[in-house]
Amino acid sequence: MHGASDRPTLLYRLYCGFTALAQPLAWRIVRNKLRAAEVPENRQKERLGHASLPRPSGRLIWFHAASVGESLSVLSLIKRLGVRLPDAEFLITSGTPTSAALIAKRLPPRTRHQYPPLDTAGPVRRFLDHWQPDAGVFVESEIWPQLIVESHQRNTPLALLNARLSDKSVAGWKKRPDTARFILSKFRLFLTQNDKTATNLIDIGAAPNRVLPGTNLKAMSDPLPVDQATLQDIQTQIANRPVWIASSTHAGEEEIVLAAHKTLLERWPDLLLLLIPRHPERRSEVATLIQDAGMTASFRSKSEEIHESTQIYVADSLGETGTWYALCPIVFLGGSLKEIGGHNPFEPAQAGAAVITGPGYFNFAETFAPLIASGGAVEVKTAADLSEIVANWLSDQNALQSAQQAAQSCVNTQSDALEAVINSLCTELDLHTQDPSSSG
Fold first, then answer.
1. For the domain that residue 266 is a member of, what is the CATH number?
2. DSSP for 75-116?
């Protein structure tokens, strides 16, 4: 049945017109960023819809994500879906060179990566003409109107997976209810991170029978990769020293972490802090903070070794976090002492660590809730709180092991949740196992 939600709204038509006019400028900005990251020219043109790879034969399931976290969160899902659907091929699109580089190292079988087209008519149509996906899965808040509408017009079943909407985004959509309904009506399924997002989607126009509250897909990702050679090398350098980790720290958080470490050094003079800034390019800023705090550091980016006098090892590199987590069972997870939203606690938990967080983990509230309730994670607010928890786990092995086991138990519950996500996608997007006898 066709209703008002099937007809393009004036706002959508204006958006299409504006993006057409803005395409030359948008392309120039995007191309410059890709050039700066030394992305080859043929891959740069993927943003204009010019594919750099052939379309595989057979069914193609397309996942579209924003950047690193969203992209990596779907890799384990694609891997499991590939086992369920042995005839299917997969395409994952993401917009940043960093995500492309990390995905390239962890591509599941029968999967390829491309940059997504700019959300304008020409690039979108070239992209869809070439790839002709049999289903499309948009991840988190990747609402690109023309990409969604054009896909729907080609009868491509669509889902919004791990859906997340900020309060600001919800308020904006509520001011444009007809356009919100028009865009959202193109999705067959919404799998949300939490009940709040499910309610918000329905409030702004999603059909209630298409919305399913779920869990945070990032909590279901495969364990981070570990480089055994690097792990053994760093373990040799650390020797028998006690260690704790502060991971994914942001500006304004290192000061608190360093203050806690300084307190801990009074009791454990040989204690090593492994500091992993969320953005490695902040290394000079971090170096200044360490110097101002009167402590010594070695930097991974400079290939500096850990000496007896090294009090902090700054792991200012990309793609090695899994190796660092394998070194130590005590991890403070940043992005949480400030109102940033936190980071995925299941990554350190999967590595066997007990987790410490600040209070600002709202992007992972539903993930942290069972961890904190079980004792697998602990919330702190100040440097004194942080040093107290680390001291407790350093001095009481039984308390640490109890926290580690609780965290691991929460990780183990996610396997069933991932299977439920796959079941929902297969049902709503008509992704059923094809009978081999019916092919050829």
1. 3.40.50.2000
2. HHHHHHHHHH-TT-EEEEE-S-HHHHHHHHHSPPTTEEEEPP
